[in-house]
Amino acid sequence: MNALLIGSIDVLVDTSELQRSAFNDAFHDAGLDWYLSRDEYRRMLAIPGGKRRIEAFAERAEERVDSAALHAHKTEIFRQMLRRGGLEIRVQIAQAMEEARRHGLKLGFVTGTDRAIVDALLDNLGGAEALGFDFVTTAADGCAAKPDPALYLHALKQLEIDASEAVAIEDYLPGIEAARAAGIACHAYPHENALAHDLGETPDMSELTLKRAA
Predict the structure, then answer these.
(1) Distance between CA 214 and CA 79 in Å, rounded?
(2) pLDDT of 28-51, one tens digit each?
(3) Going by C-beta distance under 8 Å and a sequence separation of 6 or more, which residues neighbour residue 127?
(4) What pTM was estimated for this model as a whole?
(5) CATH number of residue 202's parent domain
(6) What would the 3-class secondary structure string for 31-47 be?
């Protein structure tokens, strides 16, 4: 193994409740009588992408909305939340990143999230360089969204490694499918609101052992 790839912002930091709050704040600001309960939000997470989740919610509510504008406002609210500080890297991820650095592994952050969100999150945590990331992807890279493997293939190329040399950690099924489609071994580490999701037979984060290839 020569690289550890962190597959989403919620693998790194569990922001799922902040995101739910950002959705609800955006709905309120738009004058919509919508509210995402925790149970409803957990169900909606099975739909990849915030804009698509809004569209699905609108369809069920039988209302017409500008999903792009609403999602953009939600994203800005969420970005401001991230800028306020107080975030912590999830314990097992912090340990894995420390172990990866100790063994001299490359470290990648392979997410298709909006660049402003990724920048806000990483700045809150001290910056990509301080965290030891050798490469970070965002939506600005122009790759197809997961479960398409494009982001992972892009990361492999930039890190100059083969798929067999990397292991990924993901928190939801489309991310797992993307890693596997790129030929990368993947472990699951679902966030708080995805614990009940069906992740197939993906090995758990606890089964991950990091050691540099000889």
Answers:
(1) 41
(2) 999 999 999 988 888 887 777 788
(3) none
(4) 0.89
(5) 3.40.50.1000
(6) CCCCCCCHHHHHHHCCC
